[in-house]
Amino acid sequence: VQLQASGGGLVQAGDSLRLSCAASGRTASKYVLGWFRQAPGKEREFVSAISWGGRDTHYANSVKGRFTISRDSSKNTAYLQMRSLKPEDTGVYYCNRVTIPWDWGKGTQVTVSS
Question: Residue 16: exposed, middle, or buried by beta-carbon count in 10 A (0-12, 13-18, 19+)?
């Protein structure tokens, strides 16, 4: 499976962004998908995950209440709606299978200015 994250950009604190993760190669609908991010000089960290059916979601404490993960299996795509962005949300955002990751790809850059 190849994953392409998109939707990042440069925004101000308090703004919103919606990230998309399109899967190709084969369906990703049967897998738990997650969003991860990596800030400069830091390790990649978990942000959010969604079950294959979309019913169960999980969030890192740092984004809980501000981010919403969703997926559209018919489009083989996952989303991350980000609201009330903070400078500490800055980083490269990736999507991937939570259990055994596929190739991470390039991710999408999110930069939040104060």
Answer: exposed
